[in-house]
Amino acid sequence: MAFTKQTARKSTGKAAPRKQPVTKVARESAPATGGVKKPYRYRPGTVALRKIRRYQNSMELLIHKLIFQRRVREIAQDFKTDLRLQSLAVMALQARARPIFEGTNLCAIHAKRVTIMPKAL
């Protein structure tokens, strides 16, 4: 016979009261409690930490191409107006910016911060 684990229960020393059998009429009039199950909710911060771990281990581009391209064009406007950029040049800039942001993120983690600061760049 298989070993079954027994759990300790608090005893008051009295015999447990017997449950009254539910009559058929009472069962039919009672509302059905079956239905949509409530989704499981993680504790606050658990999902955020999971996302942080996923993004730190991933090799995908964290800044989308169009957003990065818009930012590069905005900065380039300060130096010269009507400047045209090749898409390969923008991709090369984004590829070179990634290690800089990774190092900055490591500095922020070391300083027990979540936000990267301009002084860490």
UniProtKB/TrEMBL annotation:
Q: Where is the Core Histone H2A/H2B/H3 domain?
A: 44-119
Q: Sorted alphabetically, which Gene3D superfamilies does this protein's record hold? A: Histone, subunit A
| Pfam families cross-referenced by the UniProt entry | Histone
Q: Which UniProt keywords apply?
A: Chromosome, DNA-binding, Nucleosome core, Nucleus
GO function terms (MF aspect): DNA binding; protein heterodimerization activity; structural constituent of chromatin
Homology family: Belongs to the histone H3 family.
Kindly provide the name given to this protein in its UniProt entry.
Core Histone H2A/H2B/H3 domain-containing protein
Please name the source species.
Answer: Aedes aegypti
